[in-house]
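Troubleshooting entry. The earlier prediction with adenosine-5'-diphosphate gave an output that would not parse, so I re-checked the input for stray whitespace and re-submitted. Clean input:
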Amino acid sequence: MTIHDRTTTPAPAYPGEATAMITPDTNGTPLIRLSEITKIYRVGTERVHALAGINLDIQANDYVAIMGASGSGKSTLMNILGCLDIATTGTYCLRGADVSRLSQSKLAGIRGRQIGFVFQSFELLPRTTALKNVELPLAYMHVPHRRKRALRALERVGLTDRAHHHPNQLSGGQKQRVAIARALVQEPDIILADEPTGNLDSATGEEIMNIFDSLHADGQTMIIVTHEQNVARRCHRIIRLRDGLIEADERRA
Ligand code: ADP
Ligand code: MG
């Protein structure tokens, strides 16, 4: 390739895009590959098989809902996908790298760089402005230009005018938008959301899903745990868990 060719080849708009183009479904490494993942919790002398052998590939820019009854293993799966916890057995490859057996500090580094989290209860620091809440992940990772990047993330969720408000001065939907900005700010490979609309009324939930739709359209990979049909039907793929196993994996138009 000549230098001229290089300059006329558009740069990928986001990191996942390059992966999607270079390694498509058919012959390449997916963004996420889980092979025979199990998670067994020990409670006293009891053993709880929370995940019983999960095989799952997720491609860059997938838009996935994870559904299933209470106790079916959704949160356990999210914790493993998000590198908050490790599987008892099985392999997790993230961008082709085996992260199944990493130390807590290595996992923390992966979370900081590659994964953005959104929770049902927002999990914002109460005595801290929206802007500072969004800057926080960058501070942990010692990333420069924190303020500018945090403002840009707040802009993406339409909250520029609330940057200096504290969480108790924001509505539920606004708090969740701050949390989404915080998840976005380090430009993660994946956004993981566990019941992101669970504490919101349905109209506000729709607003949050509109933001998720637009992030997905911009190339973001999204994985959302939900029990709400209205949320799941926005996604392009619905995975149903039952007793720690994938019961159904449905792609939608
Ligand atoms: P869901 O999010 O679908 O409700 P979870 O992943 O939270 O399901 O739980 C799956 C199973 O694992 C349940 O039977 C639950 O009781 C059990 N479980 C989850 N977390 C723990 C834990 N920390 N210790 C022991 N058992 C747990
Ligand atoms: Mg759960």
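This one parsed fine. The chain has nine helices and ten strands.
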